Amino acid sequence: MKILFVFAHPAPYKIDLFNGLAPHIDLTVVFERHSSGFRHPYFYERTNYNFRTIFLRGISIGAENHLSFELIRHLKNNAYDLIVMNGYSSFTEILTIKYLQRKKRPYVLYVNGGVIHEDPRWRLNLKTKLVSGATHYFSPSTHVDSYLRHYGAQQEQIIHYPYATIYDGDIAAEKISLKQKHSFWKSLNIPDGPVFISAGQFIDRKNNIGILKIWCDRPQDNQLLLIGSGPDELKYQHFITEHKMKNVHIIPYQKRHNLLNLMRYATGFIILSKEDIYGHVINESLSQGLPVISSRHVMAALHLIKNAENGFLVDLEDTDAINNAITTLIKKDLFANCTATSRGNTIEKMVDHHLQTFANIKL
Length: 363
What we know:
The chain is of the alpha/beta class. It folds into 2 domains: 2-164 and 346-360, Glycogen Phosphorylase B (Rossmann fold); 168-343, Glycogen Phosphorylase B (Rossmann fold, 3-Layer(aba) Sandwich). Helices cover 38% and strands 18% of the residues. It contains 14 helices and 15 strands.
């Protein structure tokens, strides 16, 4: 089966998926850009591509957008059994989808997540035109389906897939003892006490300032590690200094294996995003037996977290609930529930599901 997959940039979780698919299908992947947004260079450390790759020549605009006519030229000269558009928002994607619609060539729309916004009429009409023209839709959870339906998708056309960034072998096999945890954090000069992690881009929508405000009232032995990089780092440092917070530590962006190891020894993970179209760190945390406290604005949390079983879903304005959740995770062992959830969402399962779907899809 000859498949074309179009995606914005070579994100590591996509590389893992494509490398898993490539031995079984004739796969060509088109990337619009070499990098995207405020991503740290370590984010793009995956360079082993076992599939045919095309990086489009064109103009990169801002952090995410791109303009190129090269993909349309490629489609004019190449036939595929299946065309998968993993996005419809860049100029390149819009022009390509309009070309496919004009030529009556079927395409599948693949989404990593989605949040409904209030759009002006012209944008709503454009999105609806682009989305509704697909023959099928790949969605990572039922919570994303409403986003697709909002823009014209029919529920019977939506295919769910397990969305993963971890392999079976990454999942923690056994708990770390308290003695081991204490020794580990001591080796990193982190004071003794429960350690909570929040990892991601240092940008406004991640709402790390919200976490810092919560931590102002936490006991001094409750340690918080903010892991990542981005334009808001100076803002965090100023807040920490102004409030004389000795139990908050800013850690530079970590490579994947280092981050998983830090999660392995932590007490809990906390993410209070204002908006996240998915949120891979949720399943990564669970894979290490680390329960998660998340706002209800993170699609992966809505999909994977069950209150008091493997973490807590909280409202951003409910500081009492957030504090109660933190205190509960310090006292409660949820390791087995967390890893059990993660076993259902691995790269191996994602690859198998895609291969079965590709074989059975009717255009």
